[in-house]
Amino acid sequence: xxxxxxxxxxxxxxxxxxxxxxxxxxxxxxxxxxxxxxxxxxxxxxxxxxxxxxxxxxxxxxxxxxxxxxxxxxxxxxxxxxxxxxxxxxxxxxxxxxxxxxxxxxxxxxxxxxxxxxxxxxxxxxxxxxxxxxxx
Length: 136
Description:
Elements: H1 3-20, H2 27-34, E1 35-36, H3 44-51, E2 62-67, H4 70-76, E3 81-85, E4 88-91, E5 95-102, E6 111-118, E7 120-125, E8 128-135
Parallel strand pairs: 1-2
Antiparallel strand pairs: 2-5, 3-4, 4-7, 5-6, 7-8
């Protein structure tokens, strides 16, 4: 195994740990893990979990995607959200969200999706979302 491949695997593992513990490093990580604008609804969870690289090295047990325009999600941290506490903001509007839960075993990750319409609570840094704190 080359040193490059070993370093790459270590970087992927560290990234997975950050996602696992619910800490998004920045807006791009948050957007990758949680924001989606309409895509193929028939295979939504499996497609998105694989496309967003949330099945590399292990099956992420669950993830929630916000199925809406990213500008509307960003607005929660700016002028369309209500301050909850610390850096947390609650959305005033409801979003379509897709909750994806793994039913398979690695490397055969298999996700089942459940669509919901809910408000969200976001962790914001510099008026940009970086963490999906919970569904309200």
